[in-house]
Amino acid sequence: MTIGEHTNIKASIIKDTIIGSFAELDEVVLHSSIIGSDAFVRGLSQSLNIGDNTEIDLG
Known about the structure:
By secondary structure, this protein is mostly beta strands. The chain has a single domain (about 1-55), classed as Hexapeptide repeat proteins (UDP N-Acetylglucosamine Acyltransferase, domain 1, 3 Solenoid). About 0% of the residues lie in helices and about 55% in strands. The protein has strands spanning about 1-5, 10, 15, 20, 25-30, 35, 40-45, 50, 55.
């Protein structure tokens, strides 16, 4: 797993995932995923590949 600088992860389970800088993850379960820089993801449980500056709120 790789986590970029200034990334905020709350109440999450993450495995085999790359997360860019300044990303925010809240209440997610991710595996084999790529999360771009400055992305926001909340309330998700799956494998996910998203680009930079993306916001996903499934909560």
